[in-house]
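From the shared-data thread, chain only:
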Amino acid sequence: MTVLGEFVLPTGASAWTSAFIQTFARLGGEEKAIRQALARTGAAGWIRPERHGRRTRWYLTQDGDRLLTEGSERIYAFAGSQHDWDGSWLLVLARVPESDRSARHHLRTRLSWAALGSPAPGVWITTHAERISEIEDVLRHAGVTDRQTFIAQHRDGELETLVAQAWDLPAIEKQYEEFLADFASPAADDPLVRLIELVHAWRRFPSIDPGLPIRLLPARWTGARAAKLFAARHAKWSPDAVMQWIRLNKAAS
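Structure, as tokens:
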């Protein structure tokens, strides 16, 4: 998905199988595993194959294009903290039967991506009240009928305790520190490989970090510094990496 979003989406929305194989070979991937990954992604409905003699070209589907476009916008805009917060909270009460594992997984994954945390079973909160339409769509698609949503203001109680119950900020901070260490150097022997590693490492943060307002974050929060490093490394490595990808895909045509 990282390669699809970083290279395929902005360069014509299609690519040959051999371009994927050569790219992932530079990352240590084996051809059989790459073909299986493409098949699974196709079965999930994000890409579709088109035969050209003995070769296969993969095209983004409409759903794949939408997913990658929305994901890219959030990944690249993610700043590690929220600015201009007006104090509003979005509160969701959603009950899903224990037996419906698929709906529970969908709900947890998509609500986490939308920056919600769960301080108690069936309760989800976020400071991003502007995402209410997105969250209502998630609830509908998960088939959650027993649900309530509220836009609320905090009146009493320790917000630090609520935040700690909803999100493991120390664990997130540790991952930011690892990211900063992994990409501290601007050097890149292979910009294509380094860019894929960079984006793949960064794309997890919008799912685990709720992007809280600064006043709700620990004093030494490194999320903003990590976001600046990501932007700098991406700007440095992307031009060469994209040109390499275009050459690989053109050579296969």
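Residues 25 and 124 are 41 Å apart (CA to CA).
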